[in-house]
Amino acid sequence: MSIILPPPQLPTPLAIPLELATSLAEAAVASIRQSIKRTARERRPRRGLTIKPGAGTPLWNELAAAVRVQLGRRGEKTKLARMLGLPRQRVHEFLRERNALPDAERTLLLLVWLQARREGRDLA
Fold it and tell me: For residue 80, is it within any domain?
C-alpha cells in the first residue's frame, strides 16, 4: 500500500522589478569574482617573505634577549657581526630595533655563539 502525497504548493513567483533583479545579479557576479581573487591570493605561495619579529615570534624574542645579555662589553656586537658575516648595523636591527630576522643559517650560528659564550668560550 502506497501513500500518495499531493504535489507541493509553490509560492507564486516574486514580482521583482527588472532594475533590482539586474543590480542583484551584478552584485552577485562581483561578489563571486572577489571571492575567487581572494582564494587565489590565499593559495599563492609566499616565497621570499619572512615573518616580522614581535608577539608572534616568542622563540626569537627569547634568543634575542639572551644574546643582548651577552653583548655587554664594547666591541662585542662587532665581533658577533664579523662571525655572522653581516654588517654591525644589521645585527643591531636584529637585536635592538627588532625590525628584521636573520636567516636560518645565521640563527643557528647565533645559537652556537650563545652556547659557547655561556660555556666561557669565545668563537670570534
Answer: yes
The list of the chain residues with pLDDT below 50 reads none
**What domain count does the chain have?**
1
pTM over 0.70: no
Residues with Cβ within 8 Å of 54's Cβ and at least 6 positions away in sequence, in order, are 98
End-to-end, the C-alpha distance of the chain in Å comes to: 94
CB 80 within 8 A of CB 71: yes
d(C-alpha 102, C-alpha 113), whole Å? 14
Domain housing 82: 58-118
**Under DSSP, is residue 62 helix (H, G, I), strand (E, B) or coil?**
helix
In a domain, 11, yes or no: no
> What is the grid cell recorded at 113?
655563539
**Any domain includes 16:** no
Element (H, E) at 90: helix 88-92
Determine, yes or no, domain membership for 47: no
